[in-house]
Amino acid sequence: MKKQVLNRLRSIEGHVRGIERMVENDHYCVDIVKQSLAVQRALDKVNGLILESHLQTCVTTAIRGDESQERERVVRELLEVFETASKL
Question: Class of the 2-87 domain?
Fold first, then answer.
C-alpha cells in the first residue's frame, strides 16, 4: 500500500506542476479548474487508500484488543476523520 500511495502522490505532484505551468502561461481558466478538480479526485483516492490500510491494521488491532480505552480512542479518531471529510 505504501508504494501505491507514494506512486500516486508523485503523479499528483507532477500534475500540480503542470497546473502551475498552465497558470504561468495564462491558459484558459476553465481548463485550469478542470485539472485542479482532477488533482482533488486523485487526492481523494490517496486518502481512501490510506484510510483502508488504517482500518485493516490499526483499527482492527484496537478493536480486537483488550483495552476498551484504546477502542474508544480509535472510534473517536475515525469519527473525527469522517466529520472533517463531510465538511469538505
Answer: mainly alpha
The label of the residue with cell 497558470 reads: 23
Chain segment 18-61, per-residue pLDDT in tens: 999 999 999 999 999 999 999 999 999 999 999 999 999 989 99
Domain extent listing, the chain: 2-87
Grid cell of 7 as nine digits: 506512486
What is the grid cell recorded at 84?
472533517
Torsion, Cα 69 71 72 75, to 10 degrees, reads: 160
What the block records as the C-alpha cell of 82 is: 469522517
For the full predicted model, state whether its pTM sits above 0.70. Answer: yes
